[in-house]
């Protein structure tokens, strides 16, 4: 028997279930997704579930169940079931699908905290951290910055200086799987019932960190390639595990590219510490690029704002604007198609 409160089940989710037409059936949480097959943690154990045709063919891909979703299912055989409904999501971590402008993919849902993991080796990349921060904050998920491999030689001051605009806003941990004390500090930051997702590029040590937090091998790990300094993509899917006496951990595969799905470009100013300068711009709608009297560009020229941070802000804002515009056009198109469908139904009834 599983106590689902340990997996995050609470009164709010119970109330959401009561609004479903299938509230009389069983509920559980998706722990792993294998294409159209879903492993679901229920009170009676782990089930292998599939979707009803209405769900599989009636929803866009990003609305199909993802790791962390709470679903309602009908058991039909030993260890098997059919998912008939998905409870409304909150705090979803999305990413923009590769080679698209506005198509997005749900990585995990019902997330309380996101551990943004960076390795203190050749893999360290402040720009990648900014991307994860932007996406996490967009969904009101609490970000926590985790530096792994602190047993290696590194310059802490240089690391902190490169991310000072972020470090001042979030909890930060320097960890090593060879330092029990550093792992204990991270473990203590996770409360019972909370769900934490681990994000970062391949080779930063996400799976090793999860194993250390759980004090057992729950995910296989592989060595770092001597040639590239990168991991060998051990994690190939998003998986959820329960940490003894505490919260739920979701490991994710390393990503080379993490496209943002932010549709409010203005929110980026706060993340990059630009809002304070922007308030002094001559024009209220300043884009901080070519306008005269731009306090942001002036801050860059005076050395008050790092050029790399400014360039990263402009790049992510452009992505955000493109995503927002494409999303708006898509909604307009869907609305038009809906009106055409409704009109066709009226004509048919005549």
From TrEMBL:
GO biological process: ribosomal small subunit biogenesis
Cofactor: Zn(2+)
Key words, A-Z: Cytoplasm, GTP-binding, Hydrolase, Metal-binding, Nucleotide-binding, Ribosome biogenesis, RNA-binding, rRNA-binding, Zinc
Subunit structure: Monomer. Associates with 30S ribosomal subunit, binds 16S rRNA.
Signal peptide residue numbers: none
Skewed-composition ranges (Basic and acidic residues): 335-350
Family under the similarity heading: Belongs to the TRAFAC class YlqF/YawG GTPase family. RsgA subfamily.
Major site of localization recorded for this protein: cytoplasm
InterPro entries according to UniProt: G_CP_dom, NA-bd_OB-fold, P-loop_NTPase, Ribosome_biogen_GTPase_RsgA, RsgA_GTPase_dom
Domain of life: Bacteria
SUPFAM superfamilies xrefs: Nucleic acid-binding proteins, P-loop containing nucleoside triphosphate hydrolases
Gene that this sequence comes from: rsgA
Record-given protein name: Small ribosomal subunit biogenesis GTPase RsgA
Organism whose genome encodes this protein: Chryseobacterium populi
PANTHER family membership: SMALL RIBOSOMAL SUBUNIT BIOGENESIS GTPASE RSGA
